[in-house]
Design goal:
The chain has 477 residues and is an alpha/beta fold. It is built from 16 helices and 13 strands. The mean pLDDT is 97. Bound molecules: glutamine.
Length: 477
């Protein structure tokens, strides 16, 4: 990766006047223009970004700038920004303009971040390869024939290819962490409730969280500090005070880390990923950390539980897109009902339709107890067992994904095979705990690999401090 790798570097250069913010923005805009084949951006806010740079440059000179002055950031296309288009990469929201901003956007702007554009993603954040986007797949900058991962694929590639310094994605079952691992960057999913969901286009409301994708742990910490905290517009946002995550130093205390023995033997685990995982265990041990296997018998249930619950929630959340309230309306409708049917049939892509249908099925009266209610109970068991492990250990360690980035167009025709690839990311989502994916070198073909650490609820601080301590160790091994 070329270019600046942290906001601290940029701010130092801005303050010493070795760098001018307008030049930096123009530089990013130039690269976005040159790298259009990546398909990371759906829209670039060029003029706005340039005007903001002038204003913020002045503030830097007068010493009145916010914490994020100098940060050029992209936002996933499911995060609302007032008077800007937002589509969740779906035809049904094509040309929809948001009448308000997400709380996270307001918080970014209040600290002088420059939002440079909106980033491609899987349709309604449903997917793990960015191939379900109405606007086409995003290409991995490590190998243009490979997927970016998803659903925050544009966000991960934009950071990987240095088209912006950082990005905000959303993570329902891995959508920040998995593309981060495919692209060799840092991805953090905060505790459920740590960050406001107000203004995020909902997929599965009891799972969705906004998270940063960055080139280093320091920037992830700073971004979390800015976006986290209570919000009167989101009753599920926590009122717990927000620590100064950016002040956190690398931890020097030796940690006790569990890894799930079932994970190492899981079907479909790529040999290079397994090797990188074992190598990471050894490097951590060599640094004096304790790393021990624990058994987690629920591993085979995490994917079915996650999909039953998220599809149920999605079927309810997506009912609002009816051709009347929002954006796309079919011209073939002749009355109210056919307008609903036609607009939804033409507006949604196949993966979204599949999930709406399945979600409606698991919620219908005759099957509710057999699927939805049962999955809720299993979710509780998974959460309790995860908490139990974390009462004895500081962190749980897992590969982020079972494979490196795969070839575009190669995803299985069988959706279940694709869903199973989420096996290592959905546990943290079901349990509502924080998790981070850190780059852990490349495979022989030069494709990035990621290692994931899960922490205790609302203890992002210790997860970040540990991550700061080991980020170089993992990257360079
Ligand atoms: N791949 C998972 C899914 O399709 C996760 C998506 C996400 O986190 N938004 O549901």
């Amino acid at each position: 990766m070329e270019g600046f790798s942290s906001l601290a570097q940029i701010q130092t250069a801005l303050v010493s006047r070795d760098l001018n913010l307008s030049d930096l923005v123009v530089d990013y805009l130039k690269r976005i223009e040159e790298r259009q084949e990546l398909n990371a951006f759906l829209e670039v806010f060029s003029e706005e970004a340039k005007s903001a740079a002038l204003i913020i440059q002045e503030k830097i000179i007068t010493g009145t700038s916010g914490k994020l002055a100098g940060m050029v950031i992209g936002i996933k296309d499911n995060i609302c920004y007032i008077n800007h288009k937002v589509s969740a990469s779906s035809r049904i929201l094509d040309n929809y303009t948001s009448p308000f901003s997400a709380t996270v956007v307001e918080r970014l702007l209040a600290e002088d971040a420059i939002i440079i554009g909106r980033l491609n993603c899987d349709e309604f954040a449903m997917g793990a390869s960015n191939e379900s986007s109405y606007y086409g797949p995003v290409r991995n900058n490590a190998d243009l024939t490979k997927v970016s991962g998803g659903s925050s694929g544009g966000a991960a590639v934009a950071v990987q290819a240095n088209l912006c310094l950082a990005a905000l994605g959303t993570d329902t079952g891995g959508s920040v962490r998995q593309p981060a691992s495919f692209c060799g960057v840092v991805g953090l999913k905060p505790t459920y409730g740590r960050v406001s969901r107000h203004g995020i286009i909902s997929y599965a409301s009891s799972f969705d969280q906004v998270g940063p994708i960055t080139r280093c742990v320091d920037d992830a910490s700073l971004l979390l500090e800015v976006i986290a905290g209570a919000d009167e517009h989101d009753s599920t946002s926590s009122s717990k005070s927000v620590p100064d995550y950016s002040e956190i130093k690398p931890s020097s205390v030796k940690k006790k880390i569990a890894y799930l023995s079932e994970a190492l033997h899981s079907e479909g685990l790529d040999a290079d990923v397994k090797l990188a995982f074992e190598r990471s265990i050894n490097s951590l041990k060599a640094e004096g950390h304790t790393v021990e296997p624990v058994s987690f018998h629920f591993l085979e249930y995490v994917v079915p539980t996650y999909y039953i619950l998220t599809m149920a929630e999605a079927s309810s959340n997506l009912a609002r897109y009816d051709g009347i309230h929002y954006a796309y309306r079919s011209e073939k409708g002749v009355d109210l009902e056919s307008t609903y049917k036609r607009s939804r049939s033409e507006g949604f892509g196949p993966e979204v339709k599949r999930r709406i249908v399945l979600g409606t099925f698991v919620l219908c009266a005759g099957y509710y107890d057999a699927y939805y209610a049962k999955a809720q109970k299993v979710r509780r068991l998974i959460r309790d067992k995860t908490d139990e492990i974390l009462s004895e250990f500081d962190f749980i360690m897992l590969p982020t994904a079972p494979t490196p980035a795969f070839t575009i167009g190669e995803s299985s025709d069988d959706p279940v095979v694709n869903y199973l690839a989420d096996i290592f990311t959905v546990q943290a989502s079901l349990a509502g705990i924080p998790a981070i994916s850190l780059p852990a070198g490349n495979n022989k073909a030069g494709l990035p690999l990621g290692i994931q650490f899960l922490g205790k609820r609302f203890e992002e601080g210790s997860l970040l401090s540990f991550s700061k301590d080991i980020e170089e160790l993992l990257e360079d091994q």
